[in-house]
Amino acid sequence: MAKFVILASCLWPILISADHSHTKGAGDSLVPAAFFVPGRGSYSSSVKEFHPKQITNSAGIQLVLVPAGEFLMGSKSGDEDEKILRKHQIKNPFYVSKYEITQSQWKKIMRTEPWLAQGNAQVGDRFPAVYVNWLEAREFIARLNKLERCSCYHLPTEVEWEYAARAGTVSSYSFGNNPRLLDQFAWYAGSISNRRFARSVGKKQANPWGLYDMHGNVWEWVADWHNEDMGPRIRGGSWGSPSSSLRSSNRSVARVDRRAGHIGFRVVRTLN
Question: Is residue 3 situated within a structural domain?
Answer without folding.
Answer: no
